[in-house]
C-alpha cells in the first residue's frame, strides 16, 4: 500500500509480534501486530496496528509510544510520551514496518478504547505546560465532521433511513433527526460542537433543514481539502464560498414563486412532505393539517407575516393514541381542579386570572409570633379566616365562577381554607398557572390579569360557554375551555402518545413544523422540492464560474457540493444516482428549473406540478449556515489549550 506521493505504507522487516506475543514472518503489517511508524518529519512511534481505512486514507494505532525525531532518540528518551490511540493520514507517513514489542510497551497502562476515542486525532502534551498551541491540520480537524456528514446522508429525504442510538446507560432508540443524532454523539472535537450549534440554529429559525446543513458543511470541507492541495489559500477559498452562497440566495429568490396562503391543500401537502422524513411520518395525515390550522389561527390579519408561536399552547398527555390528538377551539389547562367539593363543570363561565395570593400574608422580615394560651390562638385563627373570607367574597361579588391562580414562590398561592370557601361559593379554582403562560391564557380567554384584590371587578372577566375537567390517557386530567367569546389569535393543541419517547418525538416534530410554516407566512414564497433548487444553483454557478477566473475553482467546487443533495435523494430511494443526477442536470441546463427527483415515481419530473414544494426560507438558510460554518473552520489555524 502506498500514499499518493509513493511513500511506503505496508513494507516492513522480516518478522514481528502481534498483540498476543505471536511472531509472524511476513513483510505486510497485519491488524493486531506491533509496528514502527515514521512520519515525513522523521518522528518515530510504535504501537499496535488497530485499523487501516483505505477510503479515508488513514491508519489507526493503539497503545502508541511517541519517541520524537529519530536522531534525538539515539541519544535520549526523556521525551517519550504514551497515548491510547492515534490516527495518521497516508500523506503524513514515510514508512510503516513490523517490529518487536519493546519493553516500554509491556509496561504501558491498560487502554479501554471506545468509539469516541477511535475518532481522536490529538496527541498528548506535557502536563507541565499550562498554555500551548497546536497547529491545526485541516484534514485532521475536520475528520469527525466529514465522517458525521457521510453518516447522516442516509437519513435525507422521505426515503431516508433512521439510526439506532445506544446511550451509555444501555438504552436504545431510533432517530432520523440530524440534530438529535449530533446531540447524542460524544464530542471529542470542538469543530463537531460548532456543527451542532449550526444545526440547532437552523432548526430554531426554520424548523427543518438540519440534515442538509450537516451534509453540505461536510462536503464543502471535503472540497476545500482538494482546493488546498492545488495551492489555493484558505482565505481565498473562504471568500469564494461566501460569494457563492450570496449568489445562491439570489438564484433561489429568482426561481421561487408566491404562495396563496388561503390554499389549505397546498399548505397541507407541504407540511406532509416536511414530516415524511421524520420519525412521525406515518401520522403526518393528522399532524400536518393540525399544524396548518394552528398557525393560521394565530395570524393577525393586519400583519400576517408576524407569527407569534408562543400563542400555540401544546399539552402533552401519555396513554392515548395519536388519533386522540386534537386542536381545541379554546384553551387547555394542564392542571386539575382543586376538589374540596368544588364544581368540575361550569357552564356560562366567567373567568379571571389573579396574580395575588389567597393565603395569610407574611411579614417582610423573618420573625416569630409566640402564642401563650388558647384564646390567642383562637383569635389568630379567626383573623386568618376573616381575611380569607373577605377576599373570596370580593371574587364572588364580581361574578367570577372560574378562578385561575398564578404559581407563587414566596408563599402559598392559595391554602386549604381558601379552597373550602371558594368551593362553598361554587367557584372552580385552578392553581399553579406558570408565569410564562399568563400572556397566553389572558389572550385566549379574553380576561385581564389582576395583581391586587382591590382591582378585581367584572370588567376583568373573560367569558366561555363551558369549562370542564376531562380525563386523558391513564389517570391524567386537564381543564378544557370551549366557546370562548374572543380567542385573541391563540390556540391549544392536545398531543397524545402511548409512551414517553413517542410523545416527545411528536411534540418536537410538531413544534418544528409550526416553525417551518411560520417561515412560509414570513417569506410567502415556495420552491420546488426534490433537489431542484440545489441543481439550479449548481448549473448557474458553473456557468458564472467561467467568467470569474479568481473564483473559478472554488465556485465549481461549491456547485459540485450542491449536487450532492439530489444525488443523495436518488441514492436513498434506490435509484441510479449518476443517471438521475445527469438527467436532472440536463433538464436544468435546458431551462426546466422546477424539475427534481421524484422518489415516488423513480424519475425526474416537474415538482411544482406534483405539488412537491418546500419553503424558500428553509433552503436559503441551510445553504447559508453550511457556507458560514465551512468558512469559519477554514479560517482556523491553531488550537490554544489551557
From TrEMBL:
<dbReference type="Pfam" id="PF00118">
    <property type="entry name" value="Cpn60_TCP1"/>
</dbReference>
<keyword id="KW-0143">Chaperone</keyword>
<dbReference type="InterPro" id="IPR017998">
    <property type="entry name" value="Chaperone_TCP-1"/>
</dbReference>
<dbReference type="InterPro" id="IPR010920">
    <property type="entry name" value="LSM_dom_sf"/>
</dbReference>
<dbReference type="InterPro" id="IPR027410">
    <property type="entry name" value="TCP-1-like_intermed_sf"/>
</dbReference>
<dbReference type="GO" id="GO:0005524">
    <property type="term" value="F:ATP binding"/>
</dbReference>
<dbReference type="GO" id="GO:0016887">
    <property type="term" value="F:ATP hydrolysis activity"/>
</dbReference>
<dbReference type="Pfam" id="PF12701">
    <property type="entry name" value="LSM14"/>
</dbReference>
<dbReference type="InterPro" id="IPR012717">
    <property type="entry name" value="Chap_CCT_delta"/>
</dbReference>
<comment type="similarity">
    <text>Belongs to the TCP-1 chaperonin family.</text>
</comment>
<feature type="domain" description="Lsm14-like N-terminal">
    <location>
        <begin position="24"/>
        <end position="118"/>
    </location>
</feature>
<keyword id="KW-0963">Cytoplasm</keyword>
<keyword id="KW-0547">Nucleotide-binding</keyword>
<feature type="region of interest" description="Disordered">
    <location>
        <begin position="1"/>
        <end position="21"/>
    </location>
</feature>
<dbReference type="GO" id="GO:0005737">
    <property type="term" value="C:cytoplasm"/>
</dbReference>
<keyword id="KW-0067">ATP-binding</keyword>
<dbReference type="GO" id="GO:0140662">
    <property type="term" value="F:ATP-dependent protein folding chaperone"/>
</dbReference>
<dbReference type="InterPro" id="IPR025609">
    <property type="entry name" value="Lsm14-like_N"/>
</dbReference>
<dbReference type="InterPro" id="IPR027409">
    <property type="entry name" value="GroEL-like_apical_dom_sf"/>
</dbReference>
<dbReference type="InterPro" id="IPR002423">
    <property type="entry name" value="Cpn60/GroEL/TCP-1"/>
</dbReference>
<dbReference type="GO" id="GO:0051082">
    <property type="term" value="F:unfolded protein binding"/>
</dbReference>
<protein>
    <recommendedName>
        <fullName>T-complex protein 1 subunit delta</fullName>
    </recommendedName>
</protein>
<dbReference type="InterPro" id="IPR027413">
    <property type="entry name" value="GROEL-like_equatorial_sf"/>
</dbReference>
Amino acid at each position: 500500500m502506498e500514499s499518493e506521493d509513493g511513500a511506503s505504507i505496508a513494507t516492513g522487516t522480516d518478522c514481528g509480534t502481534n498483540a498476543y506475543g505471536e511472531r509472524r514472518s511476513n513483510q505486510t503489517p497485519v491488524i493486531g501486530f506491533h509496528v514502527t511508524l515514521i512520519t515525513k518529519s522523521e518522528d518515530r512511534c510504535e504501537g499496535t496496528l488497530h485499523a487501516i481505512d483505505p477510503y479515508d486514507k488513514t491508519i489507526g494505532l493503539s497503545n502508541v509510544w511517541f519517541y520524537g525525531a529519530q536522531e534525538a532518540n539515539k541519544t535520549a528518551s526523556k521525551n517519550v510520551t504514551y497515548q491510547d490511540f492515534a490516527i495518521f493520514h497516508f500523506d503524513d507517513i514515510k514508512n510503516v514496518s513490523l517490529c518487536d514489542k519493546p519493553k516500554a510497551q509491556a509496561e504501558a497502562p491498560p487502554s479501554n478504547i471506545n468509539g469516541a476515542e477511535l475518532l481522536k486525532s490529538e496527541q498528548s502534551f506535557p502536563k507541565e505546560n499550562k498554555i500551548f498551541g497546536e497547529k491545526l491540520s485541516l484534514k485532521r480537524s475536520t475528520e469527525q465532521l466529514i465522517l458525521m456528514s457521510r453518516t447522516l446522508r442516509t437519513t435525507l429525504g422521505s426515503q431516508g433511513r433512521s439510526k439506532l442510538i445506544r446511550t451509555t446507560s444501555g438504552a436504545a432508540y431510533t432517530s432520523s433527526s440530524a440534530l438529535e443524532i449530533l446531540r447524542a454523539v460524544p464530542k471529542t472535537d470542538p469543530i463537531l460542537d460548532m456543527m451542532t450549534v449550526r444545526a440547532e440554529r437552523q432548526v430554531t429559525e426554520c424548523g427543518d433543514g438540519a440534515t442538509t446543513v450537516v451534509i453540505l458543511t461536510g462536503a464543502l470541507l471535503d472540497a476545500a481539502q482538494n482546493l488546498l492541495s492545488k495551492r489555493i489559500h484558505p482565505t481565498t477559498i473562504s471568500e469564494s464560498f461566501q460569494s457563492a452562497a450570496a449568489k445562491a440566495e439570489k438564484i433561489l429568490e429568482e426561481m421561487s414563486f408566491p404562495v396563496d396562503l388561503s390554499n389549505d391543500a397546498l399548505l397541507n401537502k407541504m407540511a406532509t412532505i416536511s414530516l415524511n422524513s421524520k420519525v412521525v411520518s406515518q401520522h403526518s395525515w393528522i399532524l400536518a393539517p393540525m399544524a396548518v390550522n394552528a398557525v393560521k389561527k394565530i395570524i393577525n390579519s393586519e400583519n400576517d407575516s408576524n407569527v407569534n408561536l408562543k400563542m400555540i399552547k401544546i399539552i402533552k398527555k401519555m396513554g392515548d393514541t395519536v388519533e386522540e390528538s386534537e386542536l381545541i377551539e379554546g384553551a387547555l389547562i394542564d392542571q386539575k381542579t382543586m376538589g374540596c367539593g368544588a364544581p368540575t363543570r361550569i357552564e356560562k363561565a366567567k373567568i379571571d386570572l389573579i396574580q395575588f395570593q389567597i393565603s395569610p400574608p407574611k411579614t417582610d422580615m423573618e420573625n416569630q409570633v409566640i402564642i401563650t394560651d388558647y384564646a390567642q390562638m383562637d383569635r389568630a385563627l379567626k383573623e386568618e379566616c376573616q381575611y380569607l373570607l373577605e377576599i373570596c367574597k370580593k371574587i364572588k361579588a364580581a361574578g367570577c365562577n372560574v378562578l385561575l391562580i398564578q404559581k407563587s414562590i414566596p408563599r402559598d398561592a392559595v391554602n386549604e381554607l381558601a379552597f373550602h370557601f371558594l368551593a362553598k361559593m361554587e367557584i372552580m379554582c385552578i392553581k399553579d398557572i406558570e408565569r410564562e403562560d399568563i400572556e397566553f391564557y389572558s389572550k385566549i380567554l379574553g380576561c385581564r390579569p389582576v395583581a391586587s384584590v382591590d382591582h378585581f371587578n367584572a370588567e376583568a372577566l373573560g367569558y366561555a360557554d363551558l369549562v370542564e375537567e376531562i380525563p386523558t390517557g391513564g389517570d391524567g386530567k386537564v381543564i378544557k375551555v370551549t366557546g370562548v367569546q374572543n380567542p385573541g389569535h391563540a390556540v391549544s393543541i392536545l398531543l397524545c402518545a402511548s409512551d414517553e419517547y413517542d410523545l416527545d418525538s411528536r411534540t418536537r416534530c410538531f413544534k418544528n413544523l409550526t416553525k417551518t410554516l411560520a417561515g412560509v407566512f414570513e417569506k410567502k414564497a415556495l420552491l420546488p422540492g426534490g433537489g431542484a433548487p440545489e441543481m439550479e444553483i449548481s448549473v448557474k454557478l458553473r456557468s458564472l464560474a467561467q467568467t470569474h477566473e479568481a473564483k473559478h475553482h472554488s465556485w465549481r467546487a461549491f456547485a459540485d457540493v450542491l449536487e450532492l443533495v439530489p444525488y443523495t435523494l436518488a441514492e436513498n430511494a434506490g435509484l441510479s444516482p449518476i443517471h438521475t443526477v445527469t438527467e436532472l442536470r440536463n433538464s436544468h441546463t435546458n431551462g426546466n428549473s422546477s424539475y427534481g427527483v421524484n422518489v415516488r415515481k423513480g424519475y425526474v419530473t416537474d415538482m411544482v406540478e406534483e405539488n412537491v414544494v418546500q419553503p424558500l426560507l428553509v433552503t436559503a438558510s441551510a445553504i447559508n449556515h453550511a457556507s458560514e460554518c465551512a468558512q469559519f473552520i477554514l479560517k482556523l489555524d491553531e488550537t490554544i489549550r489551557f
